[in-house]
Amino acid sequence: MIIWLNGPFGAGKTTTVRELLKASPGLVELDTELLGYALRPALASRHPVGDFQEWPAWRRLVVTALTELARADVGDVVVPQTVVVEEYWDEITGTLVDRGIQVAAVTLHVDLAEHLRRIETDMLSRPEDDAGRVPAARWRRERRRDYDSALPWLRAKTYVLDTTAISPEDVAEAVLAAVPRGLQHQPQV
Fold first, then answer.
1. How far is CA 177 from CA 20, 147, 159, in A?
2. Which SUPFAM superfamilies did the record assign (predicted)?
3. Which one-letter DSSP state was computed for residue 54?
4. N or C, fewer C-beta in 10 Å, the chain?
5. Which domains does the chain have, with CATH numbers?
6. What is the rounded distance in angstroms from the CA atom of residue 25 to the CA atom of residue 21?
7. For the chain, where are the alpha helices, taking DSSP H only?
């Protein structure tokens, strides 16, 4: 099964994965952003985009990687990746389901004020210089509008968990409890 953690950039998906891996050591993480970074040198100059998710190659590579992990029988895989374009979401999850892979989707929601606080706290805790922090913080703040616009379809297609006032450990526990409710797509038997 794929446990997909969605939510706004900077909401705590990576932190939640760390807690999930502690609570459930059998889980395996696939950070699909790394696949986007791997594609960037080959595609960015010929097919410039604002977000690597716009590349069909990224979406296909995500599906292929998750399919291969399922074939390798590594167990349940947790994916911390914001996807706010419904068409991309449907393409990825629909193809996984067509391949017989269950997808449990949990959106980690956080209210705006707390989200902005987490972005600033995270940026301050990173060792990069100010030049590295400012663009990442700006990117996360600017993308909040995309998340807010996507929230209606995310509520329909994922289990939305409000993480505004709970600790990372409690978020992980709530995700594990929510996984059965987050099952939006199951393969047809």
1. 11, 24, 11
2. P-loop containing nucleoside triphosphate hydrolases (SSF52540)
3. G
4. C
5. 2-185 (3.40.50.300)
6. 5
7. 13-23, 33-43, 56-71, 86-98, 112-125, 130-157, 168-182
